[in-house]
Amino acid sequence: xxxxxxxxxxxxxxxxxxxxxxxxxxxxxxxxxxxxxxxxxxxxxxxxxxxxxxxxxxxxxxxxxxxxxxxxxxxxxxxxxxxxxxxxxxxxxxxxxxxxxxxxxxxxxxxxxxxxxxxxxxxxxxxxxxxxxxxxxxxxxxx
Length: 143
Fold this sequence. Notes:
The structure is a single chain. The chain has one domain: Immunoglobulin-like (Sandwich), CATH 2.60.40. The strands form 3 sheets. Strands 5-4-8-9-12-11 form a 6-stranded antiparallel β-sheet, with helices on one face. Strands 2, 3, 6 and 10 form a 4-stranded mixed β-sheet that branches. The longest helix is centred in the last third of the chain and has 7 residues, at 103-109. Helices cover 8% and strands 51% of the residues. It has helices at residues 2-5, 103-109, and strands at 8-13, 16-22, 25-26, 31-38, 41-48, 54-57, 60-64, 76-84, 87-96, 112-115, 121-125, 135-139.
């Protein structure tokens, strides 16, 4: 009974650092949007690229009792995108299946560097702990 009352810290997104370029040239004053969804609530925040095309988001977490429910399946949706000249570009999109962000994903989100001339692709990052904890992303960024 006491386990039901426990609140868990759910990491919606770790710190994000990145850069946006077009054919290698930085794009300044560009709005970057981050949307985080768990389980049905969505939090949206934005930031603006500086003169070098760099941007940053602080880590975001929340407290929830849901991970203590045996029937609950964790699904944290992360989307980081932008619009440039009437086109949408996907810097990062994934669905995370655990309440803590895997180390490889944290590494990627600290170097979220995307060139708008690069096509988006699906990429898989295998977890060191388990293949079932691998993360599949769609992104214009490469690592």
